[in-house]
Design brief:
The protein has 7 helices and 11 strands. Strands 3, 4, 5, 6, 7, 8, 9, 10 and 11 form a 9-stranded mixed sheet that branches. It has a two-stranded antiparallel ribbon with strand order 1-2. Helix 1 (about 30-35) packs parallel to helix 2. It has a single domain, classed as Rossmann fold. The chain has helices spanning about 30-35, 55-60, 75-85, 135-140, 145-155, 170-180, 235-240, and strands at about 5-10, 15-20, 45, 65-70, 95, 110-115, 155-170, 185-195, 200-210, 215, 220. The chain is of the alpha/beta class.
C-alpha cells in the first residue's frame, strides 16, 4: 500500500484509495452519479469501474441496491476492493475483474435494471496518450471502445432497463447512433459546460432498453462560477 493514499470522497461519508501516480478519479463520476435515476433496490452494473467511485456512489444513493463493478485492470480491481472494505460496503458492492468485450459468466444477460458507465473517451489514435499504462487504459480506447461498452450494456440490461453514460460532447452523434442501433434508445440528454454560455465539454445521457424514440433535453450543467475556479452551486450540491 506504499503507493496508495486515502482521500475523502464525500465529507464524513465515503473514502477511496487511489494511487499517488496512475489513474485518479475526476469530477465526471460525480456528475454521472447525480444524473442517474435509480429505481429502489435495483441491480446495477458499473462498466469500467476504475477506482470504484461510481459503484460506491450508486450504493450510497440507494443502500438497498446491489452493485457490481466490472474492471479489467488488476491493480484497479485490487484497489477498489480495498476501498469497498474500507467503507464496509462488502454486502452492497462487488468488484469483478473482467472485460466488457467478453463478459464474465457471472454477469447474466438481461439480469440488470441499471447500467452505468464512464468509459474511455478517446480513441487510441486521438491526442496524446496519458503517461502510465493505468491512466492510458482509463482514458483511451486501448481495451474496448464505445461500441464494446454499449454492446455489453445492451446485453446486461432487462427490457426497459436504464443505461447512463458520461461522454465527450464532440462524440455525441456517434453515441446517439450507436445507442439506437443497440436498442438503448436515448431518452434524456444534458450538456456539461465549464462556464455559463461556454461550449459543452461533456454530455450526460440516459437510454432505455427497447424504448420508443423521444428524448428530453435538459438545461445545461455549468461547472464553474464566472471566470474563476470556484464550483457552481449545483456542482457543490452534487459533492455535498
Amino acid at each position: 500500500m506504499s503507493h496508495v493514499e486515502s482521500e475523502k470522497l464525500l465529507p464524513k461519508v465515503l473514502k477511496i484509495l487511489q494511487a499517488k501516480e496512475g489513474y485518479r478519479y475526476s469530477i465526471d463520476p460525480f456528475l454521472l452519479a447525480a444524473f442517474v435515476s435509480l429505481p429502489a433496490g435495483a441491480k446495477v452494473v458499473d462498466l469500467g469501474s476504475g477506482s470504484g467511485v461510481i459503484s460506491l456512489l450508486m450504493s450510497q444513493k440507494d443502500p438497498l441496491a446491489k452493485v457490481v463493478g466490472l474492471e479489467l485492470q488488476e491493480a484497479l480491481v485490487e484497489r477498489s476492493r480495498s476501498t469497498i472494505a474500507l467503507n464496509n460496503f462488502q454486502d452492497r458492492v462487488e468488484i469483478v475483474q473482467g472485460d466488457v468485450r467478453d463478459l464474465p459468466a457471472s454477469l447474466m444477460s438481461g439480469s440488470f435494471d441499471v447500467v452505468v458507465s464512464n468509459p474511455p473517451y478517446r480513441s487510441a489514435v486521438s491526442g496524446r496518450l496519458a503517461s502510465g499504462d493505468e491512466r492510458s487504459r482509463a482514458r483511451h480506447e486501448l481495451a474496448g471502445g464505445l461500441v464494446d461498452f454499449l454492446t455489453a450494456a445492451s446485453s446486461l440490461l432487462k427490457s426497459g432497463g436504464r443505461f447512463f453514460i458520461v461522454y465527450l460532447a464532440e462524440r455525441l452523434p456517434e453515441l446517439m447512433a450507436e445507442m439506437s442501433c443497440l436498442k438503448l434508445e436515448p431518452k434524456r440528454l444534458r450538456m456539461v459546460a465549464s462556464r455559463e454560455g461556454g461550449e459543452a465539454r461533456l454530455i450526460l445521457v440516459e437510454g432505455r432498453k427497447n424504448a420508443r424514440p423521444g428524448m428530453k433535453v435538459e438545461s445545461p450543467l455549468v461547472i464553474y462560477k464566472g471566470a474563476g475556479r470556484d464550483y457552481s452551486d449545483e456542482v457543490l450540491a452534487i459533492y455535498q
